[in-house]
Amino acid sequence: MKPIKVGLLGIGTVGSGTFNVLRRNQEEIRGRAGRGIEIAMVADLDVERARGIVGDGVNVVSDARLVIANPEIDIVVELIGGYGIARALVLEAIAAGKHVVTANKALLALHGTEIFAAARAKGVVVAFEAAVAGGIPIIKALREGLTANRIEWIAGIINGTTNFILSEMRSKGLDFGVVLKEAQRLGYAEADPTFDIEGIDAAHKLTLMSAIAFGIPVQFDHAHVEGITKLQAADIKYAEQLGYRIKLLGLTRRREQGIELRVHPTLVPINRLIANVEGAMNAVMVQGDAVGTTLYYGKGAGAEPTASAVIADLVDITRLATADPDHRVPHLAFQHDAMNDTPVLVMDLVLTSFYLRLCVADQAGVLSSITTILAENDISIDAVLQRESAEGEKQTDLIILTHQTVEGRMNKALAQMQALSTVLAPIVRIRKEELA
Hints:
Elements: E1 4-9, H1 13-24, H2 26-33, E2 37-43, H3 47-54, E3 59-61, H4 64-69, E4 75-78, H5 85-95, E5 99-102, H6 105-122, E6 126-127, H7 138-145, E7 151-157, H8 160-172, H9 176-186, H10 194-197, H11 200-214, E8 224-225, H12 233-241, E9 244-255, E10 258-269, E11 281-288, E12 292-299, H13 303-320, E13 351-361, H14 366-376, E14 381-388, E15 395-402, E16 405-406, H15 407-418, E17 428-432
Parallel strand pairs: 1-2, 1-4, 2-3, 4-5, 5-6, 8-10, 10-17
Antiparallel strand pairs: 7-9, 7-11, 9-10, 11-12, 13-15, 13-16, 13-17, 14-15
């Protein structure tokens, strides 16, 4: 059987990794796919550099539309990134009857509904394993391996840059700004790290996992997103003393009123495996009603880990190329007519626990007034820690862990506590999840 012909749009880090792994492991891949998979055409603005990577025998062009227009190309792999020209090219490839593989989480988080509808209408596949958690096969696990389960929640460390920064802050006691500069020097953080450190990259990935888990459309615009830029070394230290680690967690959970979809720094108990994921590694926990808790761990970025996921998608499409489109695995796991309109909850309705740090005057009655406010708002206390503030003897750090409460209730209590004359600085609030 003749090989499947692949056109590569962009041959940067992931594209070159894909080409090299496919060439190195071609015998194993052919044996698993049932036929060869061959990158026959590459589009990249730097034609000479691209030719240096792929060598002779591969047609290299500067115009991506020439790849899409080539009738011999069966699958288009989009590795350009962003959601401007990438969106146009993906939709054009679908219109031309090409299957598409992409690592572009931003594109799918914002325009996935449109793209998947176009692919369904044309009878082609859009595969995106590489868009979430690099080499970890979490999309396949959610869409196929756990298909018997009613998924209850997903919690993931899905951005390696922020996890590296938090690991360094904890181990070295340094503040965020210092560690960010070191992460940039080592190549873990981009020159402009905004998407990573503000939680946007993680929210793109979480949006896709949530849609697959709960059968809802992708809706990044409803996600609550907070980054790690305001985290202080003191809070990481206090959390450790209380038996917790702070991670930038993407969390989506099924609730009676709707779906929680949120990314923010989170206290996680030290005895949870996910709390011990260090450096630039990724990990995703999934809670299913039948299987219980499962954990997926590995490299979330890099040339060959991501290439592993791209090629896995190529193999899947090769196996399914002649299958009836109505009997393929749906893009978002659920059949089109089984998708639902369960709303994503606003943050005021989210149910979680909290870590609070208050810098207060060191005088009698302060703790009493704060606990009274919490009690009046029906918020119960789990633990209290008092430490001398680094600012001087006349003030102290008061750390409070709460039991679960609705976020809107906590917001009201925080406003009341902040108004106290004995509260001397903005209150630090970090959410806490037991993940039990």
